[in-house]
Write a structure and sequence with these properties.
single chain; 190 residues; globular
Length: 190
């Protein structure tokens, strides 16, 4: 009886999540992500070639006010590539760009978010290694409000430059970013 009562609630939470299972923080509002003409839906399988160039990002339900920080993070880098235990997985930040603002008019139902910034970490397309058996790497795109006068904490500069092992929770805490507002994710298999 308890399961039948909770099942619809659990299903609703699963359906609303725009971040991968077990990813924290969980985000329920969709960040529209487009690689060329291909729109990302949560968990969509894409290829390295399709994701080689930075995506167009935006919203379809409203224009966002303010300025935003965009992250793209691979959640599934084999730990063994950097001396970790076989079978372990670590993160790699593929993009961390600041200064995103929204257009006030939708084009093709998309309020596009754009930036002129190319740092602190310019976009690097997914390039997961070939694994046996094949392993689909999860790439999460997440958008945070950018505080006025934002600067990357000096203690995080090497983590961003290194990329591998990037700890989003630590970065958000040190940078005092608050809660994310939009997210999405896709997979790429090496």
């Amino acid at each position: 009886m308890l399961f039948s009562t909770l099942a619809p609630i659990l299903l609703a939470v699963t359906v609303l999540a725009q971040t991968p299972p077990n990813f924290s923080p969980s985000v329920t509002s969709t960040l529209q992500v487009k690689f060329g003409s291909k729109s990302v839906t949560p968990g969509l399988a894409l290829t390295k070639a399709e994701t080689a160039k930075i995506p167009t990002i935006g919203t379809s339900d409203e224009a966002l006010n303010g300025t935003y920080i965009f992250f793209m993070i691979d959640l599934d880098v084999p730990g063994s590539l950097v001396g970790g235990a076989a079978g372990s997985r670590i993160t790699n930040v593929h993009c961390l760009l600041t200064g995103f603002t929204s257009t006030s008019m939708a084009t093709n139902s998309l309020y596009t978010l754009t930036t002129k910034d190319t740092s602190p970490k310019a976009y690097v397309g997914p390039a997961p290694p070939v694994e046996n058996p094949p392993y689909a790497h999860k790439y999460v795109e997440i958008l945070y409000p950018q505080p006025v006068g934002f600067k990357v904490p000096s203690t995080q500069m090497s983590a961003i430059s290194r990329g591998i092992g990037f700890n989003l929770t630590a970065f958000v805490s040190e940078a005092k970013l608050g809660s994310p507002v939009r997210a999405n994710w896709f997979t790429v298999t090496g």
